Amino acid sequence: MINTNIYNYINVLDKAADAANSRNEIISNNIANVGTPNYKRKDVSFQSYLEMALMGNESLDERVAGVNTHLSDFGGLIYTDSSTLSYRLDGNNVDIDTENAALAENQIRYNALLDQIGQEFARYKMVLSK
After folding, report:
1. Distance CA 64, CA 59 (A)
2. Helix axes 60-69, 8-32, angle to 10 degrees
3. First-to-last CA distance in the chain?
4. Closest CA to 112 of 45, 20, 9
């Protein structure tokens, strides 16, 4: 985390990319355990926390600065999804098609976040080179 106000957006995007990377690992673990009896799928919740933190009447810059001051409090919360439900007789609740779709969606999100971070640095580079 870079401790200056100019990097508020980059810090928030970086934290979101970290959470997306964690979610990628969790989903991959779910896929790896598709045949494990009694395995319950896991997931990471981060996006909803960030969305709630960014809600408000202030300008986006002020809301992002507010989130940035408490960024260490934000982390991907790993939880067991539908731990009492099972789709199969062996007690496993992992659906391979759902996991593959979630992995593809998450990978697109991760790549978009990295692209946004790159664009932010490109803007700073353009301003500094003038």
Report:
1. 9
2. 60
3. 26
4. 20
Distance set, CA 113 to CA 57, 70, 129 (Å): 24, 20, 24
Q: Say which DSSP state 4 is in.
A: S
**What's the Cα-to-Cα distance from 58 to each of 30, 63, 64, 121, rounded to whole Å?**
39, 6, 10, 25
3-state secondary structure of 3: coil
Tokens found for residue 89: 């007789």
Sign of the CA dihedral 65, 70, 72, 74? negative
Q: CA–CA separation, 6 vs 82, rounded Å?
A: 41
Pairing outcome for strands 77-80 and 42-45: antiparallel
Q: Please identify every stretch of the chain with a pLDDT value under 70, giving residue numbers as ranges.
A: 1-5, 75, 130
* pLDDT given at position 4: 59
Tokens of 77: 């919360």
Residues 21 and 129: their CA atoms lie apart, in Å, by 32
